Amino acid sequence: MDITQKVFEFADDIGPGKIVHLYEPRTQTKAIVVIDNIAAGPAIGGVRMAPDVTTTEVRRLARAMTFKNIMAGLPHGGGKAGIIADPKTVNKEQVIRTFARGIKNLTDYIPGPDMGTDETSMAYIYDETGRAVGLPRELGGIPLDEIGATAYGVAVCADIAHEFINLDLNGARLTIEGFGNVGKPAARFLSGRGTVLVAASDSKGTIYNSKGLDVEELIRVKDTTGSVTNYKDGEALESTDLLMISTDIFIPAARPDVINESNSDVLDAKLVIEGANIPISENAEKILHDRGILVVPDFVANAGGVITASVEYHGGTETQAFEKIKNTISRNTKEILEKVYSENTYPRDTGIGIARQRVLRAMKYREWM
Ligand code: NAD
């Protein structure tokens, strides 16, 4: 199929408005930017750096941002970028600055951090373009990973969701896939509510102890040695083994599509809160729901980061960000789950139905749309 046909194959009544492929031959930097919809305002979305990031992945993530931002009531549309590079091996500053020069004129897109990029990366982008969120404190930013903004939202989501399935958070077993900027503080916030972290994984493996892992010690081990598998008081397994561990709450906080149709029968959990973006394929989410596992979708559950980014962009404080995360995520989770259980629908379908209507209404105010 011709590339043009392929690009427009998935366009619908919302977007995507722009798909830009960047290539800088001298450094061979390759990147993709998708601005999905800007009816509510300039698009905010993260810059992902990974060797295997694709246009399809960026497009799906950009749409998730459109829904996430409108659900959170932010004056921003949705977009996303992917830099095709391995953050561990490239000259990161050079690649990020090259990318930033390439997007300087894409003023409808405000970049934020995502997998493989961080506050320092955003500082370089801001230096080149004057636009970025998730900046270091020294530049007036609210460092959303340092404060655990997304993870806080995940915990707020659990506070509401557990009541719908009669799950006591106190003593509930917790497993976390991806012990990074979302996974680590999620473990911390949830252990504050009495959950017991029985397993956590990263790209190098899984650590498991049915009696519980010491969250603070595990964070220390991950930060100092690079992997959860170096934690002493637990069994080290493969990364993929995490999905087979019986749990009450499962938080995917790493890569897309870790649960798909081929392994959706494996997970033994009561509640899944999507810390990562698109961690479960849409069909697999439905299979899990039909198996009695409640899945709170990404664009509702992990909005804490972008809410903080938006508060920062509009000159607000950290305290205001936490308050907005709490109010927004509890209200949205409640609204969606009430509909799911009263109308017997799937959580994502319900959430998307609400979000889509809001985007279409925002588009009506825009003559050029
Ligand atoms: P991160 O890079 O800090 O952490 C990712 C973790 O996942 C790392 O520990 C890595 O080792 C691990 N990992 C990678 N591949 C894995 C695999 N195959 N199996 C198990 N673990 C694996 O990234 P992050 O900022 O925590 O983001 C994680 C996810 O959450 C992404 O999908 C991101 O888009 C999403 N998200 C992040 C934020 C945020 O505020 N950081 C906000 C919203 C959504």
Report what the structure shows.
This protein is of the alpha/beta class and 369 residues long. The protein has 13 helices and twelve strands. The chain has two domains: 3-143, Rossmann fold (3-Layer(aba) Sandwich), CATH 3.40.50.10860; 149-302, 3-Layer(aba) Sandwich (Rossmann fold). The strands form two sheets. It has a seven-stranded mixed β-sheet with strand order 9-8-7-6-10-11-12. It is globular and about 55 Å long. The model has no long low-confidence stretch (mean pLDDT 95). It binds nicotinamide-adenine-dinucleotide.
Could you tell me the radius of gyration in angstroms? 20 Å
Strand order of the largest sheet: 9-8-7-6-10-11-12
Could you tell me the mean pLDDT?
95
Task: Quickly count the domains.
Answer: 2
What fraction of residues sit in β-strands?
A: 15-25%
Q: What is the tally of beta strands?
A: 12
Question: In one word, what is the shape?
Answer: globular
CATH topology of the largest domain: Rossmann fold
As an assembly, this protein is: single chain
Helix percentage range: 40-55%
* Helical stretch tally: 13
**CATH architecture term of the largest domain:** 3-Layer(aba) Sandwich
Task: Describe, in short, the structure shown.
By secondary structure, the protein is α/β, with parallel strands linked by helices. The chain has 13 helices and 12 strands.
Topology:
Layout: H1 3-9, E1 18-24, E2 29-37, E3 43-50, H2 55-71, E4 78-84, H3 92-102, E5 109-113, H4 119-129, H5 144-147, H6 149-164, E6 173-177, H7 183-191, E7 196-202, E8 205-208, H8 215-225, E9 235-237, E10 249-252, E11 271-273, H9 282-290, E12 294-296, H10 298-301, H11 304-313, H12 318-343, H13 347-364
Helix pairs in contact: 2-13, 3-4, 6-7, 6-11, 6-12, 11-12, 12-13
The structure holds nicotinamide-adenine-dinucleotide (NAD).
